[in-house]
Task: inverse folding
């Protein structure tokens, strides 16, 4: 019983040494062969294979691995065989090599960290001086998510045209979260957006949670302003999905705020009905249409500014011409100017 206990203890000790060798980077088989060579210096490949439960070919593979790690050398006493290098020599050198490799990796990591820090600083300086170009909707939405997440005072948005339902869904949750934190939200939509259910639902939800929503016949270009310190404007106003410019220059942000405040002051709160102009009998939308067409825009151009189709523009102009008693747009323009409508 006693000898069995000692045998079990010896096996456990040997297994423990093998595990320690594995921790140094040896494979399980190579660790077993190395341990067997230390325990049985005179064993040839066949005997080592029996001790380690490997094939002779497997032992040769392990010897190759051990030789690369400089843990075995050619035997002077037994030509054609290998001998194990004493652990205090071979393993110490192995650990020293690993420490040197680790030091080199740490030096490389430190250099990489310094390079990243410099790059981040350079990008911050570039953004501060010139603004940062964000290409594509993913980049735009990602930046807006970041800014809205840390917003502390106010979020301002100008939305010309009609937002797609997926774009509305992308900002819905983050706007509600900001409102819950006490951040003020003011959203300015084009009047044409009132006819679209998904936008109306979104706007009503904002109102219900403390946001402000107004509409106007024509609004400035798409803009997002966060905490009066960050502004995003489209790179190409004709295709806002191409990208945006993120600016932080106080002068630029202030100019965009001034433009927004002017449009906001004349816009109508959602839920209110814009009355006809008592002098002309025109709605605000019709007055803006006359102004745009009078400035030389085509039906398509005016429709884009108002967020409606050119077909709608023609229908609205026909209604205005009927009220003026005009048979052509040219005549309608003259009569509108005579009556002070332009």
Result:
């Amino acid at each position: 019983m006693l000898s069995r206990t000692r045998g079990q203890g010896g096996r456990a000790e040997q297994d423990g040494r093998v595990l320690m060798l594995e921790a140094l980077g040896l494979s399980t088989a190579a660790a077993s062969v190395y341990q067997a060579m230390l325990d049985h210096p005179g064993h040839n490949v066949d005997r080592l294979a029996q001790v380690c439960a490997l094939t002779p070919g497997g032992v040769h593979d392990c010897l190759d691995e051990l030789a690369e790690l400089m843990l075995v050398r050619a035997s002077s006493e037994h030509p054609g065989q290998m001998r194990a290098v004493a652990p205090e020599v071979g393993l110490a050198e192995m650990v020293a090599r690993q420490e040197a490799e680790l030091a080199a990796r740490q030096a490389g990591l430190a250099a990489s960290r310094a390079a990243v820090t410099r790059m981040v600083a350079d990008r911050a300086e570039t953004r501060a001086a010139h603004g940062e170009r964000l290409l594509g909707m993913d980049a735009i939405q990602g930046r807006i998510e970041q800014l809205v997440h840390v917003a502390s005072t106010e979020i301002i948005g100008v939305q010309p045209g009609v937002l797609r339902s997926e774009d509305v869904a992308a900002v819905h949750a983050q706007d509600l979260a900001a409102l819950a934190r006490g951040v003020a939200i003011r959203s300015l939509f084009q009047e044409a957006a009132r006819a679209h259910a998904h936008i109306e639902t979104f706007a009503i939800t904002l109102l219900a949670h403390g946001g402000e929503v107004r509409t106007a016949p024509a609004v400035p270009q798409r803009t997002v302003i966060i905490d009066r310190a960050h502004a995003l404007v489209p790179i190409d106003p004709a295709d806002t999905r191409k990208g945006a410019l993120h600016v932080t220059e106080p002068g630029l942000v202030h100019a965009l705020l001034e433009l927004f405040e002017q449009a906001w002051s004349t816009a109508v709160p959602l839920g209110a009905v814009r009355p006809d102009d008592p002098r002309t009998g025109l709605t605000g939308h019709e007055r803006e249409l006359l102004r745009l067409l009078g400035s030389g825009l085509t039906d398509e151009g005016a429709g884009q500014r108002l967020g409606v189709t050119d077909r709608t523009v023609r229908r609205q102009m026909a209604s205005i011409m009927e009220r003026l008693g005009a048979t052509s747009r040219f005549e309608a323009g003259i009569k509108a100017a005579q009556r002070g409508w332009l």
